[in-house]
Amino acid sequence: MGDTVVRGQAAAERVRSAVAAVRDPEIRVLTIEELGILRDVSAEDDGRVVVTITPTFLGCPAMDVIRADVAAAARDAGCAEVEIVTVLSPPWTTDWLSDAARAKLAAAGIAPPVRRDDPGGRTLPLLMPALRAPRCPRCGSAATAEIARAGSTACKALWRCDACRQPFDHVKDH
Hints:
It comes from Microbispora siamensis. This protein is an alpha/beta fold. It has helices at 3-20, 32-35, 63-76, 99-107, and strands at residues 38-43, 49-53, 82-86, 110-111, 122-123, 132-133, 144-148, 156-161, 167-171.
């Protein structure tokens, strides 16, 4: 293991820390790491750092902004050359959201997606049987209804709570 690799590993750790702090441009309360978009940061023998990301869905309009923000964060961390690689397999899933990320979403008034293994989720009688109704992030009621599949951003749907009558965004299940 030569000096280049050691310097590269230290650079990768520094860049990873900086890149992990990049906020998602559409869900500003979460970083790309908390969302699970940031997959890997590695150092190459030639001194280049490779950042691997996965979009939340194909055609995500925020990916150009995320790539630019990642490149800027890497440069600010002292990385002279960064390559950003987008991988689609395995595809991003809401299961990659941590409990802390789900709590941040709820605190911001955005209903986090229900975990697939959550027995308390209510399955909706729709064409997509895996989709389950979220609880209201304001009052916690399970009596919610989808108003529009297209919400404030492409990765969110608009819902309404039947109990408190408040509308809210819900991160779409993937």
